Amino acid sequence: METVENDVVRERDFYRAKLDEAYARIKSLEFDNAELVRRDQELTKRCSELANKGANRPRFNKRH
User: Fold this and answer.
1) Domain assignment of residue 55, yes or no
2) Does residue 14 lie within any of the structural domains?
3) Cβ neighbours for 58, distance < 8 A, ≥ 6 positions apart
């Protein structure tokens, strides 16, 4: 009976450790996602500004 209890406790602890690892991974991925969202917003804003600025491109004169 005692070995069965030990096996159950060991299995419970194994899955608890796996769950803790999963929570740590989720936290890391959430942070990475937040950084990527912020970067995407910055790049979208910059692309929009550059697209609106397109009329100010330098023109090249062709002289022959």
Assistant:
1) no
2) yes
3) none
Answer yes or no: pTM beyond 0.90.
no
Residue 47 — pLDDT band, cuts 50, 70, 90?
Answer: very high
Q: What is d(CA 10, CA 20) in angstroms, rounded to the nearest whole number?
A: 15
Place of tokens 């929570």: 23
- Domains of the chain: total: 1
28: containing domain: 2-48
Each residue of 31-55: b (16+ CB within 10 Å) or e? eeeeeeeeeeeeeeeeeeeeeeeee
Q: What is the pLDDT of residue 59?
A: 67
Answer whether residue 57 is part of any domain: no
